[in-house]
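Sanity check record (used in CI):
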Amino acid sequence: MSFFKRKKDVKNQWGWFGNYDSWEALTSLSGGYEAASILDITKNALLKVKNGDAAYERDSVLFDKKIYPYAVISALLYAALECDNVLNVIDFGGSLGSTFYQVRDLIPTSVKLNWSVVEQENYVRCGQEMFEDDTLKFHFTVKESMAEKQANVLLLSSVVQYLPKPHEFLKEMITYGFQYIIIDRTAFTKNNQPDRLTLQIVPPEIYEARYPAWFLNEEIFLAHFKDYELKTEFASYVDGEQEMEIDGIKAGYDKGFFFVRKQVR
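Expected output for Methyltransferase, TIGR04325 family:
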């Protein structure tokens, strides 16, 4: 099919469009996620959160009142209780610590918290220079992070759908044997439709960007976790993500899951 071109009569110019066959071709058209401007906007926003000048940041947007992802926090507290109040979290695709800053004030001080963000090289270098401390660390790969400190929790928040090969990625993550896996704000197709690759166009008031984004088949997605017990599943806490439009039609949704590794008998 031809790549999406904006038309004058399209009411909503922002959101998700198309059904593409090639991630690489779509990336060459859209530019992907590596633009320095996105990092700069995110960095400046999170510095305000870090310095107490804003309540929290989501997708580089600042908010004056914090909205908590309670399902994620509950899963973290569950893991902490089962692990003698020790939480070693790998936050894959965690930007410059967005979720860390969002949840940290609801994690009791009695919990020993270690939070490792695994990200793109430019984010890691920025994070190490401007955000890293005794609790929050930044690493280039999961393997590097695990070598420094063995994690018991893997957090995947709004990231799997932005990877070129999400199923291969999930297969790799399973091999690490994380005791707990928390998945949040992940996009799925409605009505058991197959995986769908779309072009996401970000509203310019956030930043100017276009990039590839998957909507995944939930049943196929869940099949990766046969070694885990699904403790709970939950809708996205973000307004508008419980039902999402592709090409102007309600065809997707965001949701999350909390998995606990099954005991080996």
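The CA atoms of residues 245 and 251 lie 6 Å apart. If this sentence no longer matches the regenerated tokens, the check is flagged for review.
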